[in-house]
Specification:
The protein is mostly helical. Helices cover about 45% and strands about 0% of the residues.
Length: about 100
């Protein structure tokens, strides 16, 4: 399941990059805001959303859903790096044995 969501997430990422690059930028009209006569608002007038804009919104929502699901699935997959039991207490080294003839 995790691998399937990762593959879907990568595909959605590539699609959203392509869609954003295909859209016409609104930054070209910023010059009209400072003395130009053709602008109605600072960043241009609001127009009706295009099919490309609606598709970008749908893909962006899908991207957020896959991101959220990946975070949940990776949290469930995560294993602790700490051991489940405490280490055994260290014992003191044994006293060196004395030969039988020396005491």
């Amino acid at each position: 399941m995790f691998t399937l969501v990762v593959i879907l997430h990568v595909i959605v990422s590539l699609i959203i990059i392509g869609l954003v690059l295909l859209q016409a930028g609104k930054g070209a009209d910023i010059g009209s805001a400072f003395g130009g006569a053709g602008s109605q608002a600072v960043f241009g007038s609001m127009s009706t959303p295009t099919v490309l804009g609606k598709l970008t919104t749908v893909i962006a929502v899908l991207f957020m859903v896959t991101s959220f699901s990946l975070s949940i699935l990776s949290h469930k997959r995560a294993a602790s790096i700490m051991p489940s039991s405490a280490p055994a207490p260290a014992t003191a080294p044994a006293a060196p044995a004395t030969p039988a003839g020396l005491k």
